[in-house]
Inverse folding.
């Protein structure tokens, strides 16, 4: 029987130390990559945790834009979009849509009159599984220039320090433009009357390989009827949801998809900076909302309206938000799907 | 005859080292991507998916090679518990290499995410949209990744132990050509 160590005059202690060091270095590199050694790294988990209201998150619900209602319908492309993007959903035709009207709040039971910003999540399914998802809001510009700024805003608004907000605004003066909009722009009395904006910039590429930076908006066909938040509150906490369900039951509601093309030099990396009003606008089609369904059993419930789910012909730009949103939405999605028991599907029993 | 073989065949060794690189990259990309909100997140996710499918294809070839050529026998003097540990850890490696990409694919399918391998080419969905299923698959994919990395560290330690302490030729069975020649010479 051969002795294992006959070839080695060396003590195994040195070798064992070397092996230990190699393993420790591997583990340390892994821990560093995972961010465990970098407490200051802004992780999607931190962002999602910071979204939680003081009473804790609404379990089973989206961690932001938690209150919403599903719809289905279609997108009717008029073919004009092919001039700027080869995306299959822009070829003349009709494509199925799943969407969600929502309120920009982490509270699933917020009263409709208490939430300034509303949102629209949308999935347009093109041929061959070429899916386009987008999540838009009613504000015409975003509140902060960077994802780090958004995290700072969440921290300041959740802080008990009375000067926190002042300090935040000092470091993020762009926030005042948003505040101006929030405090002066009229509220509408229906989701059907709201204009929803991408705010973030994306890159569209057409079949000829020409790329352009774009932003887009869904512009409602229904004329806006303004209402004060106080009057909206008087109509009941869930008025917007019952109203849109009733309105769509009577007649489909439509929005026009208008894509704005940037001029060279327009700011694409900062969604707080609006582009000048004279930019080229391509009207690419119409969203038709045909059926509204409660979220608990609705088709939008378990969809993640991740704005980086893009068909060929569309891509992200140097705007840092879509990546940050994608990372944070994934955490929100992973958490809420693991909390299905806290937000039962009505067909499976627990809640009516 | 494979019984006489003292090393893995050249294709087996090539696949081992190629997959070692892919899998290590995969695990580092995985824990890295979920820890950042920078644009690197999207780039890492875009690498993670096709690399996972590449590993799935490679492991199928690897299992076929292993079934065809087998493995060199472990040294006769290796203590039984270490032999058992070697066999079980190799089984676990094969299981993880097959299961991890499938879990990732299934998890994305259960969430109704398009599984984009590269722009314009999606894999088909292999499961219907289901929140509870997604949560289960996500947990499995997540925790098994750490098990996988721990197993790799153990494997690395064992390989070095064979090479530096026992000098029993086990390391040379899988070592690249130049290393094992140096050992023999």
């Amino acid at each position: 029987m051969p002795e294992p160590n006959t070839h080695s005059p060396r003590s195994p202690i040195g070798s064992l130390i070397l092996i230990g060091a190699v393993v420790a270095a591997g583990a340390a590199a892994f821990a560093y990559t995972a961010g465990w050694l970098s407490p200051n790294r802004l992780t999607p988990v931190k962002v999602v945790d910071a979204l939680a209201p003081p009473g804790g998150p609404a379990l089973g619900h989206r961690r932001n834009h938690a209150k919403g209602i599903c719809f289905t319908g279609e997108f009717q492309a008029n073919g004009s979009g092919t001039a700027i993007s080869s995306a299959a959903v822009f070829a003349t035709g009709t494509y199925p849509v799943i969407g969600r009207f929502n309120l920009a709040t982490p509270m699933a039971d917020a009263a409709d009159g208490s939430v300034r910003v509303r949102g629209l999540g949308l999935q347009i399914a093109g041929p061959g599984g070429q899916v386009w998802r987008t999540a838009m809001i009613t504000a015409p510009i975003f509140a902060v220039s960077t994802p780090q700024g958004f995290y700072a805003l969440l921290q300041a608004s959740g802080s008990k320090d009375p000067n926190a907000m002042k300090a935040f605004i000092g470091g993020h003066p762009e926030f005042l433009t948003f505040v101006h909009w929030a405090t002066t722009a009229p509220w509408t009395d229906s989701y059907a009357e709201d204009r929803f904006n991408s705010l973030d910039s994306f890159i569209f590429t057409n079949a000829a390989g020409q790329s352009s930076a774009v932003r887009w908006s869904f512009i409602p066909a229904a004329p806006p009827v303004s209402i004060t938040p106080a009057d909206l509150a008087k109509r009941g906490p869930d008025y917007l949801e019952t109203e849109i369900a009733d309105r769509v039951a009577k007649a489909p509601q439509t929005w026009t998809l208008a894509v704005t093309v940037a001029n060279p030099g327009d700011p694409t990396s900062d969604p707080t900076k609006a582009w000048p009003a004279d930019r080229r606008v391509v009207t690419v089609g119409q969203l038709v909302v045909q059926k509204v369904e409660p979220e608990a059993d609705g088709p939008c419930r378990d969809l993640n309206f991740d704005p980086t789910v893009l068909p060929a012909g569309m891509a992200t730009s140097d705007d840092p938000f879509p990546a940050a949103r994608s990372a944070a939405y994934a955490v929100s999605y992973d958490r809420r799907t693991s909390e299905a028991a806290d937000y039962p599907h009505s067909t499976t029993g627990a809640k009516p | 005859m494979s019984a006489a073989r003292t090393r893995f065949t050249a294709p087996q060794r090539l696949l081992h080292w190629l997959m070692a690189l892919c899998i290590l990259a995969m695990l580092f990309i995985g824990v890295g991507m979920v820890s950042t909100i920078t644009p690197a997140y999207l780039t890492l996710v875009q690498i993670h998916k096709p690399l996972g499918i590449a590993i799935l294809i490679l492991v199928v070839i690897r299992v076929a090679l292993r079934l065809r050529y087998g493995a060199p026998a472990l040294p006769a003097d290796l203590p039984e518990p270490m032999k058992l540990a070697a066999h079980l850890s190799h089984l676990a490696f094969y299981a993880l290499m097959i299961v991890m990409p499938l879990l990732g694919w299934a998890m994305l399918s259960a969430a109704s995410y398009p599984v984009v391998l590269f722009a314009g080419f999606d894999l088909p969905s292999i499961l219907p949209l289901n929140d509870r299923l997604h949560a289960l698959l996500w947990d499995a994919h997540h925790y098994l990744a750490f098990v996988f990395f721990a197993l790799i560290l153990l494997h690395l330690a064992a390989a070095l132990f064979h090479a530096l302490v026992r000098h029993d030729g086990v390391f040379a069975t899988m070592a690249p050509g130049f290393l094992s020649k140096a050992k023999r010479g």
